[in-house]
Amino acid sequence: MAREGRRRWHALRNVVIVLALWEVIGRLDLVARGALPAPSEILLRLYRDWGEYPPHVMATLYGSSLGFVIGNLAAIAAGVVFVLSPATLRLFRGVNIAIFALPPIAIAPILTLSLSGMAPRVALAALGVYFVTMSATVVGLSQTDSRIADVIRAYGGGEWPIMRLARWRGAVPSILSGLRVAAPNAVLGSILAEFGGGGRWGLGAYLLGSLGRGEPDRLWGIGLVATAIAGASYLVFALLSNRFLGATRAVSLDTAAPSPGGGDGRRRARLPIALGSVALPFLMWWAFIVGTGVPALIAKTPYGVFDYLFLSRAAGAAQTRLLGAMAQTVPITMVGMAAGLGFAFLLAVSSRLFPGFVRGFMPVALVTQTMPLVALTPLLVLILGRGISLTLWVTISVTFFPAFVTLAQGLALVPRAALEVPRAYGASPWKEMRMVAIPAALPYLFAATRLTVPRALLGVMIAEWLATGKGLGNLLNQSRGYLDYGMIWSVAAASVLLSVAFYQAVVVVERRTLSRLGMHTAE
Amino acid sequence: MAAPDGICLEAVSKTFRGRGKTVEALREITLGCPPGSFTTLIGPSGCGKSTVLRIALGLESLDRGAVRIAGEPPASATRAGITGVVFQDAALLPWRTVRRNVELPLEVLGRRPADHRAEVAAMIALVGLEGYENSLPGELSGGMRQRVAIARALVTHPEVLFMDEPFGALDQILRRQMNVELQRIWSETGSTALLVTHGIDEAVFLADRVVVMHSEPGRIVETIDVPFARPRERGLFAETAFHRLTDRVAEVLHGS
What we know:
Chain A has 21 helices and no strands. Chain A is mostly helical. In chain A, helix 10 packs antiparallel against helix 11. By secondary structure, chain B is α/β, with parallel strands linked by helices. Chain B contains nine helices and nine strands.
């Protein structure tokens, strides 16, 4: 108890130190001639602007909550179906990865073109929560204690009784922790749609309207409010999931090996399912266009995009512009990601050596994870300017924090005994790290890489859109201005494909490496 | 016509394939347990004794041979509620109270727990857990959790009772105590019992017959009858005749 209290006190002390430093730096205008205002200045400005906030906050809350509810209902239903029927899961693999990997900023303009009113915000918020909750549901439902499933099967119970009696309740903590991560995503999605789609109300619209006025304290105020909303939504579900955890943990360790799935009979169906999983996202895209009934001039079907890029008269020029933009975006994304991941890896692994440091750092990492990226970028522009270093920093920051959290939490799962075996033979901390901590962290490094691919691309594109005037983000913004609908859809499609290709490449390397080392992939 | 054997395996063979390796888990296992008898299956770890039990319950498929539980194929026997099972781990649902855990088989079989309230209470009493009906598994000791699992296995009044190392995780003292209690509970129910174990004294103490298995491939090498009268008392563990028999089982077990 005393230790807990002391730890809290330390955390509080660290926050106070950071705030005090910030205040001094802000008051003295040390960063980029006042781009980093002091906390007191931001709060004062927030107080003065307070009258303007309510309609914006309400609009963002409305869009994100509706999207949160719709997206999560769809995600949980999909998760249940996927667990009951693994073939469906494989068939929807393409759709799931595409939804996970799509950079929201690229989708915002096309949603605004094809939907109207609040619908684009709701859709983007729903897309933002779907994958997280769906995978949490699948993981939770399939992690059922195999011994309990055996007991139910021993009374002739099939998949449905197992689902009803054991899986469902056992999955609650996992689903809640999925909702915890999904909640800030919904806020981010709504803000991005407001930002990329116009409209009068919403924090994203407010931010967009305030960008050109050169008032850093106001931008910081909007950023803080957005972060507070996202953070609060995270906190609500964090508290809920803590309450449920206690009564769900198995009282003893399940050592039964997972049974190898997939018989010989199913192998024949594998190729059609794989082809179907590639075709399904395009089919859904096409169905979306037909369903919304938007004219073909504005909304492009997959064929429309193909026609624009390869068959039409302007195809050559369009290709050149698109490829040129990709050539600018891809390298910086990779460099930023590599730097962010490397940094996170080193820090997480060495945290075995300095556990106190990490304990103090973790809350900061969690807060920055919930900070909406669009709100962060204009602030970084003020500090770093509009050059390449901005793009790089945005990418590193969006990659670093989730990677660090994944790695640190993953390493915390490694049994203490395993970490202590080398020490029992007198190994030095460094040797202990090399023999146990680094290999143990490897699955989580891959998981973190998979996790951060779309975020890195999103970060680069936001920076390009807002600040640097280069690459895919800029091309998207430009095409919006020129009403070049073919290019808007092409950039959206290209960035999703790019992200999926990146993701798949990581998955392949991960499987090869981990299976050679006899390790399992981490979720 | 005599009643069919409680458990009947005929020339059951099973091979596991995986990662380029094939393991012949069971070769030509033939085993018949008369109604109301108590059989223990003993063998070194990895000899396939648990696989025999899982095949008999229909949890595992078989390559060749036939299985009958009280004259029926495993799938329909389990669905009819003829069988009960206890695994090495109590495998209780952590969010259900003791009573609700005992009710689980009734729910799987589509019976209304409300109609069986008296039986549930009787089973909890039989395993000596009165007063703990509303406790969660996390609040019980290992031995108590295992007794909940036994109550759960008995609540359907099974004709055939399967037990897979039910006391494997308990200490020696508790284990003996549970052996005595299991004998008492079993004799009150009159079911056909198959117990998988690697404890020799436990096997001899409880069984009418001890079936000894060897591994690679998993096969039955000998069946040893246990002549001691029932009910057997705790003192049996110390008797010379008992030790002579356990020595005999150990001899067969280690091969010669």
